[in-house]
Predict the structure.
Amino acid sequence: MQRRLIECVPNISEGRDRAKIDAIAAVVETVEGVRLLDVDPGKATNRTVITFVGEPEPVCEAAFRLIKKAQELIDMRGHKGEHPRFGATDVCPLVPISGMSMEETAAYAKKLGERVGQELGIPVYLYEAAASEEKRRNLANNRSGEYEGLPKKLKDPAWKPDHGPAAFNDSVARSGAIAIGARNFLVAYNVNLNTTSTRRANAIAFDIREAGRVMREGDPLTGKPVLDSQGEPLKIPGKLKAVKGIGWYIEEYGIAQLSLNLTDITVTPVHVAFDEACKSAAERGIRVTGSELVGLVPKQALLDAADFYLARQERSLGIPEREKIKIAVKSLGLDDLAPFDPEKKVIEYMLEEAGSERLVRMDLKRFSEEAASESPAPGGGSVAAYVGALGAALGTMVANLSAHKRGWDDRWEEYSAWAVKGEKLRNELLYLVDEDTRAFDRIMAAMGLPKGSDEEKAARKAAIDEATKGAINTPLRTMEVCVDSMGLMRAMAEKGLPASVSDAGVGALCARAGALGGYLNVRINCAGLGDAGYKAEVLTRAEDLKAKADALEAEVMAITLGKV
């Protein structure tokens, strides 16, 4: 069953006093089961984006504690900053990550909002999926007038808070208001310009954001608005859907930026927003020098950007993930203002469990030492998967080399597709390297269960059988992936770069070795299993895969030896 996880991304109105920022962020980790992922302060905006993740109930508790601490430490009466804001904790969105629907996440946001209003006395506006009415879905509507406009706003019946006081009392004067909601993953993204002009930055932001700009007579920024028959300003829509944006000047960097919120990166990905910003800036005589991500980003957003730029260059997309991340960082200029560390900015990397890839993160020498040690794991199963991964890597290498061979430019997509397949297979085999050891550990844990009473003995035997099936399925999957990868090696031996045909051959030998290694592990693990029907089915499948591996290796070797 998929684990239920939500992300919380509160923005607090303090970006300069590190002691206050750290004190507010620290309360998150006082809640068991919540992981603090990122604290990203901005001096010019005087605002910090804090990101944490966990199961819904602990995350909501951590959010409440953070809002309470921010109320204690931040006095909005003296706050100044470039970013729109109306409260000490200005906005607190909940974002479904896994095992959660948007409706379920919105229900948690509503509960959190009610608690903040009742227990902390802060005016709460629910927005996006948690909004109580359509006009409140948009964060900008809730925050219009900002902190300075709160005394008037709280008197307006149309803008009575969903929870908390509808009066600008002494407590509210200090804390301001808060927007709490549920939304899709939002990427806060700034694009750097080689100008100091906020006016020109705004013009570019208006070009690309979905809301566009008000139609004006004469000067497009300062001219008189053109009104429709109802007296409402006419709008010129922007180029990109699901994008909000303004322009501002960042004294810290001495440049103007576009401050963009990409509210649905499946509609407008990061690289599309960047490219459109480049086009609009160039039309106005301005150059984009790079960009920056505020908070965390899903890994797929960077991989999609890498694929976009690789395809433009007619280069293979089947390269390792680490190389793709580098290409995305350079293409988007994410290291323009400061070094970009994917381990601290990509949400999946931040969520990786410590030790989940213990073996594959070792260097070659350390891995061989670990295999040679007195411990029974890692053993043949892990080594078989690793040898298979090396085979898939060689096949992928031949595909990548073929994709940009001089004179084969019209075939780059064909070879790229093979390389993408090879990368997928290589990554699965690397996963199986550690999974084989985890499967062994599960057997040992089951064997350590108590065996005193008949009931305990039965439970222990059932647990051992279940863990043993896992230890059988892992090398069986190694066999399947290795055999699948041999199709890649055969294709590359037949029609890949002629100078690399021997590499395809070596890859096939590695893949067969991985498959046979998996075969041996399936057989030995089946010996300890009591389920005769399951055992017979698995062994039949293993024999079939072994025969296919032998046949494919013979085919690839015949092709290879005919060319070398």
About this structure: Residues 15 and 499 are 57 Å apart (CA to CA).
